[in-house]
Each structure stands twice: as structure tokens, then as C-alpha cells.
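Changelog-linked ticket: nicotinamide-adenine-dinucleotide example.
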Amino acid sequence: MKTIEHFVVGKSFSGDSKRTGKVFNPATGEQSAEVKLASTKDVNLAIESAKKAFEPWANTPPLQRARVMFKFKELIEKNSDELTKIIVSEHGKVYEDAKGSLTRGLEVVEYACGIPQMLKGEFTENVGTNVDSWSIRQPLGVCAGITPFNFPAMVPMWMFPMAIACGNTFVLKPSEKDPSCSMRLAELLKDAGLPDGVFNVVNGDKEAVDALINNKDVAAISFVGSTPIAKYIYENCAKNEKRVQALGGAKNHCVVMPDCDLDQAVNGLMGAAYGSAGERCMAQSVAVAVGGIGDKLVNSLAKKVEALKVGPGMDKQSEMGPLVTKDHLAKVKSYVDIGVKEGAKLIVDGRNFKLQGYENGYYIGGCLFDHVKKDMRIYKEEIFGPVLSVIRAKNFNEALQLVNDHEFGNGVSIFTRDGDSGRTFSNKAQIGMIGINIPIPVPMAFHSFGGWKRSLFGDQHMHGPEGVRFYTKLKTITSRWPSGLRSDPEFVMPTMK
Ligand code: NAD
């Protein structure tokens, strides 16, 4: 059985922990590897290495740091098939979807290649007579990333390319469910010329996470995962005086207006609700049918959900792969049971889906609920599976109210042909990322990604300009070079003269 270790100071590191976790191939249900679960001591050692590597890396000119990113970009492109297959083999999503997610990560690397421009700073000549002032952004030190299972390449790449390009060193703790992709990315960074110790990977669970939070040499933590853990990370980083951004769960709505192009809305919803088996933080799990469009919407959706091609991620015919683990499959099924008990109408039931030859894989067919009510658990809680709930709203205002009353605020979209509805919606929705006739409005790398309300704890979104702000601290220097003129002591607040 293959053992996945850690990656510290540019090489594989086994650590002294005896604890391991199991990694499965979700398509077959077979165990593919065991992964080491780091002890506090193992994590501290990785942090120590990152700390040693910090000063020389921070002093490396941004242009040289960018050149490593350019080389890394090339290597990801060259190895994209291998990386994609790694994602499919441990996560389960279909090949083309996995490749797309790798590309979205690659785009952050491309953005990070422009770091010399982004770190240029600001200068004002003569803030006072013969006094100049300038602001620069300097790296923080050792930064850490803690990432979820659903995007084993993209989410880590939201973080470390920006952190490293800004001059920080990094310790990544990927999800223990699909850790191999991070290990391969670490090797590629080394091949790209990144000095040893600048990027490290520790595999593990809560013990590793707590070790990162409690170590005073970690300056900042970026987290992406479920809301309860995001809140835990946020609170404990604050207690330990660390900078933190903690992105949490979601329940994204798609508001379907009666004037929309229904085919476009249905196709958009199919991809957004069932793509990646609903295991996306930007998945749409609620369709809000406005006015009289509900029956037509549900009928069109039902036909397509029944026809969904579910199968292994490596099968080119598959539109939706399995769920990530057996436990997660049981959890998603139990939510469908709850929905039925709560009185929602189950229009398409995927619970008994079976695939010949893959009987032990973690498959479920697409599920569709109608007449979901806002006090039901299937509406309030994140299911993170291929389960779409249709809820009816009388009019635009009622739909907007539903969106704004929900505890999560990651993404939302509206399908309409009316510019006024689209514009008012984007202005009033209390949500971080909004799509108008776009089902999954994930911002590009040069914008920033993040939700509102209980979908993000902290101030800064990820990557893009917000990434530069998060991974640097601002310093402002004010200087005067007196020539012959000597000033007397001043005891009052200096003002501009
Ligand atoms: P998770 O919260 O279970 O795990 C995320 C990370 O936290 C993992 O690295 C895990 O090892 C660690 N962790 C788990 N339990 C912990 C504990 N008790 N103490 C300390 N650390 C712990 O999330 P997941 O199941 O891997 O991922 C799915 C979740 O991530 C969903 O809720 C999804 O919405 C969310 N997500 C959010 C975004 C976003 O941008 N907002 C993006 C992707 C995923």
C-alpha cells in the first residue's frame, strides 16, 4: 500500500507520528493509499524550516520570485494530465471538470507572475517641504493554508502562489481525503527552482491544524472548509494574534424570474447543481422559482436530472462522478430522507442508484425536491451533494428576501431578461459573488474570491488584489535629508508646512 508522507525542506518527510488515515478511490471504493497524519512535533518542524527559509526568500527580488512562478506555470501545463488524473482518482469528479479546476488554479499562478507590478508601492514627493513619503508592502513571514477536499488543486492554489510571490514562506495542510495533488505540486515547485523550505506540505487532521494555530511563528492562516471549522479557525487565530481569512460553507440560490430564457436557466442549473456531484462551494442547491414559472421549471429539470449520466470520473461519458467518501454518501442520502420526512416533494430520487461493475463506488443519482419551505433543514443546511431544492416565491421581493435571510452568503445568481431586475438584484443581494444569467459566478484570478455572512470570517477575500493585501503588511516611510539646516526640537503634532 502506497504511503503519502509530508514534504518539508524540498523532500519527502515521514515525521514521527504513527497515526495514518485512509485514502480511497471513490469510483471503486478501494483504498488507494494511506496518508500520514502529522503530530504537533512534525508540524513544528515544518514551520521551523519555513521560518529559516523566510529571510533569504523575502530578500529575493520580486522579479526573481516571479520567474519561479513562470516556470511553475509551465510545469503545471506540462503535467496537467497527470495532475488531473490524481484529482479524479482521489476526489471522484469527472476528468474535464477536474482539468477545469486545475486551470482555475493555474490562473492564480499566472496572476502571481505579475507580482513586481503589484508590489510597486506608492510615493509622494514633498508631503511637507523637502519631506518625502512612500508606502511599501512587505511579506508577513510563515503563512499556512488549510484546505478542503473538494478542490485539491484549485483551493491550495488560491493561496500559496500569492503568498510565495509576495515573499512569504508557506506550510500547506491539505485535506486528508485527497492529499496527493498537493504533494505533486510541491515537487513541481521545487523543479521550478523554488528554494527548499519555502513551500512545505504537512498532511494531517485536527492535531496538525491545531499545531499551526498554536505556533507563534505562523503569522497568518488561510482556511477554506465548512462553516463550523472556519469559525473555529477564525476565533483561535484571533486568540493567537494571527492574521486570518476563513472561508466557510454555502447554500447558493438561483433566482429564476418568469421572464427568463427557461432553457438557459435549466441548463445553467443542471451544471451548477449536479456538476462535481454538488460538491462545490459555488454549487447551486436552491432554485427560487418566481411567479408562475415553478411547474415549467420543475418539469424541465426533472427530465434532465433523470437523464444525468452518472459514472466513474475517468469515463468520458460521465457527467457526474461519485461522492468523495462512503461517509459523505451516507450523509447526503440521510438529507434526502430528512427532506421526505419534512414534507418536501421528492420529484427525482437518486438514492438507489447502482452502477454495474462499480457496486462499491460512492454513487448517488441526482435528486430533485419541489415545494421546499424555508424552515426545512434541507433548505437551511448545506448538503454538499447532488440535491437541488426548488422553493417557490410570489415575486422578486420575496425571492430577494429569501436570499438575504439565509445565513450563508457565498454566491447567488439570477436568470432574467429584465435589466432592472438584474441590476436591482446585484445591488441589494447580501452575497459576495453574484451572477446575472451566469450560473456559477466564480471570479477570475485577477478579481478576488469570497462570500459574505457565515461564508467568510475575516476581512479579505482570496487571491487577486485582496490576496496581495492579505499576504503583505503595509509600511509607510517618511524621510527628510536636511542640508545644512538644523531644526529645533518640536513638541507639537507635526503638520504640513
Ligand atoms: P472541512 O471543514 O471538514 O475540512 C476542511 C479542512 O479542515 C481540512 O483540511 C480538514 O482536515 C480540517 N478539519 C476538519 N475538521 C477539523 C477540526 N475539527 N479541527 C480542525 N481542523 C479540521 O471541509 P471539507 O468537508 O473538506 O470541505 C467541504 C466544505 O468546504 C463545504 O462546507 C464547502 O462549502 C466548503 N468550501 C468552501 C469554499 C469557499 O470558498 N467558501 C470553497 C471550497 C469548499
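Closing comment: Example verified and attached. The chain has a mean pLDDT of 97. The chain is about 40% helix and 25% strand.
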